[in-house]
Amino acid sequence: MRTRLSVCARKRRFGSEADAMAAAHGARADLRHYRCDRCGAFHLTSRRKGKRIPRPPAVESVAR
User: Fold this and answer.
1) DSSP track, 3-64
2) Burial of 26 (0-12, 13-18, 19+ CB in 10 A)
3) How many CA atoms lie within 13 A of 15 on its CB side?
4) Would you say residue 1 has pLDDT above 70?
5) pTM attached to this predicted model
6) pLDDT at res. 42
7) How high is the pLDDT of residue 18?
8) For residues 35 and 14, what is the distance between their CA atoms, to the nearest angstrom?
9) Is the separation of the CB atoms in 36 and 17 below 8 Å?
10) DSSP state, 1?
11) What DSSP element (H or E) covers 2?
């Protein structure tokens, strides 16, 4: 689902993922960051329902 333009306009924009993560970490609420499909910047949200958190990439073991 796309972010509504009116919602994007009201939210604070972060230029980098690191800035958004730092703001989410320092917040009192449990927040996560996401890249907005409207403006391309990062925003914060408290919504969790239906949102998948990406898994870290699998590390392949090297057989010797």
Assistant:
1) PPHHHHHHSPPBSSHHHHHHHHHHSSS--EEEE-TTTSSEEEE---TTPPPPPPPPPPPPP-
2) exposed
3) 0
4) no
5) 0.65
6) 94
7) 94
8) 9
9) no
10) -
11) none
pLDDT (tens digit per residue) in 5-57: 888 889 999 999 999 999 998 888 889 899 998 999 999 988 776 656 666 77
Q: Please give the pLDDT value at position 63.
A: 61
How many CA atoms lie within 13 Å of 17's alpha carbon, on the beta-carbon side?
2
Q: Are 43 and 36 in contact (CB under 8 A)?
A: yes
Q: Distance between terminal CA atoms of the chain? A: 46
Q: Which residues contact 11 (CB under 8 A, 6 or more apart)?
A: 36, 43, 44
Give Dmax over CA atoms of the chain in angstroms.
56
